[in-house]
């Protein structure tokens, strides 16, 4: 692939990265959804304005009937299905939101404004107020506390953002939609399983417009697989900020191959013409593990010493570290000559949400919370 073509792919990082991930990996990565903290507010009037046509509503109800039969076959009880299915309403505005995610439409510069002074301050205060809880939970799963805090900051503004969407409406709408039907059909089955097994009541099942639950914004299948009962009280409570929330985020990163002895990467400066000359296909660099290989538009992985030889430097223009670490280069907005050398842990953050912009937001926020400036 020519460097100019590859550059266009790099600038379309979210779309290309999502296309390179199999459906199961997209589920693990929270389906590339925008965080709850950026969920557009809506009203009942707005819902009515985008109500589905009668013919489509009839087709949707027929689809729910078909889904009920499948869910029964998967072991969901009739009592659970019959208590929830009649309440589900198609929400067409969810489709509009799904087509206009911030990760799709915003520049890197605009998106990274989420790493705001207020969000940094709130993260630092969280670390002070709950230092013992966060440190204990993060240590139990081998993840630095600042990254757990940063994910919560990006996902739900540290649990302060109101998450009010009826989850079953949201996920059923997305499962019926043509863009990712199988992916969200699986999520809908997982949501019913959560209720059917008594992990949460239907009333507790509130989400963002993208169908993600609680303060850490877990998709339903991720809740079933990765949420933990960190405080040992017999529940896995992701709805209230506490040990279960902290421990579940740390466990998510651990499951994605987190390496506690490394950070995420660093901001770097590029040599003249580096935006065009440095990007290279993934197969020209060092072999990577399965998680990193999913994100093909990250391009070639090289040792820091090789990036140094190619003219890449720290953001302040000084030499890169001499420690032997493999890194990939992500280039931001065209023309700003800014890049990011990212390490293996960056791929773990991408499992949470496969958007380069999102993962950079988490990474830069984690540094800011901890006062890291290099």
Describe this protein with a few key phrases:
374 residues; globular; 5-stranded antiparallel sheet; alpha+beta; 7 strands; single chain
Structure description:
The chain has 374 residues and is an alpha+beta fold. It has a domain at 33-103 and 163-240: Helicase, Ruva Protein, domain 3 (Orthogonal Bundle), CATH 1.10.8.350. It contains 21 helices and seven strands. The strands form two sheets. A five-stranded antiparallel β-sheet has the order 4-6-7-3-5. Strands 1-2 form a two-stranded antiparallel sheet. The chain starts with a helix and ends in a 5-residue tail after the last helix.
- Provide the spatial order of strands within the biggest beta sheet: 4-6-7-3-5
- The CATH architecture assignment of the domain at 33-103 and 163-240 turns out to be Orthogonal Bundle
* The CATH C-level class name of the domain at 33-103 and 163-240: Mainly Alpha
Shape from CA axes?
A: globular
Low-pLDDT stretches are 1-33, 41-50
Rg (C-alpha, Å): 21 Å
| H-E order | HHHHHHHHHHHHEHHEHHEHHEHEEEHH
Write out the CATH superfamily name of the domain at 33-103 and 163-240.
Answer: Bacterial muramidase
Strand fraction equals 5-15%
Mean pLDDT comes to 86
Measured between the Cα atoms of the first and last residue, the distance is 33 Å
Give the proportion of residues in helices. 40-55%
Number of strands: 7
Largest sheet: 5 strands, antiparallel
Q: Determine the CATH topology of the domain at 33-103 and 163-240.
A: Helicase, Ruva Protein, domain 3
Tally of separate helices: 21
Structural class: alpha+beta
């Amino acid at each position: 692939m020519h460097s100019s073509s590859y550059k266009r792919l790099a600038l379309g990082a979210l779309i290309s990265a999502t296309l390179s991930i199999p459906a199961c990996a997209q589920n693990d990565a929270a389906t590339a959804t925008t965080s709850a903290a950026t969920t557009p507010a809506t009203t009942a009037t707005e819902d009515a304005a985008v109500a589905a046509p009668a013919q489509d509503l009839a087709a949707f109800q027929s689809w729910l009937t078909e889904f009920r039969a499948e869910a029964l076959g998967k072991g969901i009880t009739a009592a659970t299905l019959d208590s929830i299915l009649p309440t589900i309403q198609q929400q067409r505005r969810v489709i509009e939101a799904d087509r206009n995610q911030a990760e799709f439409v915003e520049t890197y510069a605009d998106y990274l404004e989420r790493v705001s002074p207020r969000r940094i301050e709130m993260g630092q205060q969280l670390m002070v107020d709950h230092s013992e809880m966060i440190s204990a939970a993060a240590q139990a799963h081998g993840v630095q506390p600042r990254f757990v805090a940063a994910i919560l900051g990006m996902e739900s503004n540290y649990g302060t953002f109101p998450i009010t969407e009826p989850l079953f409406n949201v996920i059923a709408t997305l499962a019926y939609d043509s863009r990712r039907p199988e992916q969200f059909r699986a999520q809908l089955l997982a949501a019913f399983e959560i209720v059917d097994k008594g992990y949460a009541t239907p009333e507790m099942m509130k989400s963002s417009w993208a169908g993600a639950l609680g303060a850490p914004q877990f998709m339903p299948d991720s809740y079933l697989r990765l949420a933990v009962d960190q405080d040992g009280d017999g529940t896995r409570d992701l709805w209230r900020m506490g040990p279960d929330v902290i421990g579940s985020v740390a466990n998510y990163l651990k499951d994605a191959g987190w390496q506690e002895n490394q950070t995420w990467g660093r901001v770097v400066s590029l040599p003249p013409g580096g935006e065009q000359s440095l990007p290279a296909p993934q197969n020209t660099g060092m072999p990577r593990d399965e998680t990193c290989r999913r994100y093909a538009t990250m391009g070639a992985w090289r040792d820091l010493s090789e990036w140094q030889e190619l003219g890449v430097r720290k953001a302040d223009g000084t030499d890169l570290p001499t420690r032997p670490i493999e890194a990939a280069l992500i280039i931001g907005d065209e023309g700003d000559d800014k890049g990011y050398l990212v390490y293996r842990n960056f791929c773990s953050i991408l499992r949470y949400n496969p958007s380069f912009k999102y993962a950079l937001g988490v990474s830069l926020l984690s540094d800011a919370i901890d006062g890291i400036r290099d």
